[in-house]
Specification:
alpha+beta; Glutaredoxin; two-stranded parallel ribbon; elongated
Length: 141
């Protein structure tokens, strides 16, 4: 998809190695994980992104989609009790890529998926999204 994935946590590089060797690589790949795992033991990166919890000394589960210009396009932060959805992350990356490719001439409605209806922004769309957007597409698998 032409993206770079980084994992950042307050865990040490040694904990990341154990996670890779004994947990993650068995869930995701037959070998080492396919992205960099960064150690943020002092919480500096977590503080920059607003996910570091000073009280516990940990980072909340955050996902940030950052475009090639360095602009954050999407943020998702969850408590440790709930995991993230990789399918939604991929859907959003594809949507942001399509918007970027169109130079802003198209926008993606809620739940947009590749091949589904896009919207052309402009004054005539205001108050008329429901006439153009096929809301049922957001619920199709």
């Amino acid at each position: 998809m032409g993206v770079e994935v980084l994992s950042v946590s307050v865990d040490s590089v040694f904990a990341h190695k154990m996670w890779d060797d004994h947990e993650l690589s068995k869930m995701v790949t037959a070998g080492a994980i396919p992205y960099a795992m960064l150690s943020d033991q002092d919480g500096r990166i977590g503080r920059m992104y607003g996910v570091f919890d000073e009280r516990s000394g940990t980072n909340a589960r955050g996902r940030f989609i950052i475009d090639p210009d360095g602009t954050i396009q999407a943020i998702e932060v969850l408590t440790p009790a709930v995991g993230r959805n990789i399918h939604e992350t991929i859907r959003q990356i594809r949507a942001f890529q399509k918007v970027r490719e169109a130079g802003g001439a198209q926008v993606m409605p809620a739940g947009w998926k590749p091949g589904k209806t896009t919207l052309t922004p402009g004054p005539e769309l205001v108050g008329n999204v429901w006439r153009v957007w096929k809301v049922s597409e957001a619920f199709e698998d």
